[in-house]
Design goal:
264 residues; alpha+beta; Cathepsin D, subunit A, domain 1; six-stranded mixed barrel; elongated; Peptidase_aspartic_dom_sf
């Protein structure tokens, strides 16, 4: 990059050089530093060297053998599971023998539950295919704690602050976010940085809020799948959407009239 900057006719300010360098980093390093601020190129270089050393230490780690030791320490050492062994850049070690049809970790935790008819969108995060729920009622995008830990093995990092955001769902329940993470999300050849609040007890792995909709401009695309019909008072009842009041019991009619009076 230094050679590139020297070839420019007009010298580029160091702050802009930092931005160019960060945009051209490998995905692992980019995910670690793009939310950070640096005062100089040297500071950015030092950070990347530290990350490189950490990555090398992880890749060179070898688990000790428990069979040849009389202490309990080796038994407590981390042992790579079959699904986690896919991340060759970050960790290594003994692999548990399991059936070959065991789903990859991304496929297992980033897909809708069977029978879930809500709209899910397939995107790419850190080079991994993920499915997230499209929720136009959510002001921000969310990621579950387990899903975040899954992506953390691919380079995602957690940011925290003294003030913990409080998430209120549609049913009124409240959950505290443990922090946030900025992830590079790719959809239809477009890549944007999206901020996700990390909520430990949310059941859906990924929820794409209204800011995600605006960033990728997918509102018009979703509306194409909605059929709009012109309904008269007559065919509105005949379509089966509403039941005629004549089919109601006297008790149901009484309850209906009470509710009608409340809105007059």
């Amino acid at each position: 990059m230094r050679t590139y900057f020297r070839r420019l006719d007009t010298p580029l300010p160091e702050s802009e050089q930092i931005g160019v360098i960060k945009d051209n980093l490998a995905p692992y390093y980019k995910s670690k530093v793009f939310c950070d601020t640096f005062s100089s190129v040297a500071e950015l270089r030092a950070k990347c060297r530290l990350l490189e050393d950490m990555k090398r230490e992880c890749s060179n780690h070898v688990n000790p053998s428990a069979s040849a030791s009389g202490s309990v320490h080796p038994d407590l050492c981390y042992r790579v599971r079959f699904t986690e062994a896919k991340v060759g850049e970050v960790m290594s070690g003994t692999v548990d023998p399991e059936p070959s049809n065991t789903p990859k970790i991304d496929e297992a935790y980033f897909r809708p539950m069977p029978g879930d008819t809500r709209p899910f969108l397939t995107v790419s995060i850190l080079g991994k295919e993920c499915k997230g729920l499209l929720d136009s009622g959510a002001m921000c995008s969310l990621i579950s704690g387990y899903a975040f830990r899954t992506l953390a093995m691919h380079g995602a990092s957690l940011e925290t602050s003294e003030r913990t955001p409080l998430i209120i769902t549609a049913n009124g329940s409240q959950s505290a976010a443990t922090g946030w993470t900025c992830l590079l999300v790719e959809y239809k050849n477009l890549t944007h940085r999206i901020k996700f609040l990390v909520v430990e007890d949310v059941k859906t792995p990924l929820i794409f809020g209204i800011e995600f909709w605006k960033t990728f401009n997918i509102g018009k695309e979703i509306l194409k799948f909605i059929e709009v019909h012109s309904l008269t008072d007559q065919n509105f009842v005949e379509s089966g959407t509403l039941q005629g009041s004549t089919d109601l019991t006297s008790e149901q009619i009484e309850q209906l009239n009470i509710r009608i009076e409340k809105f007059k």
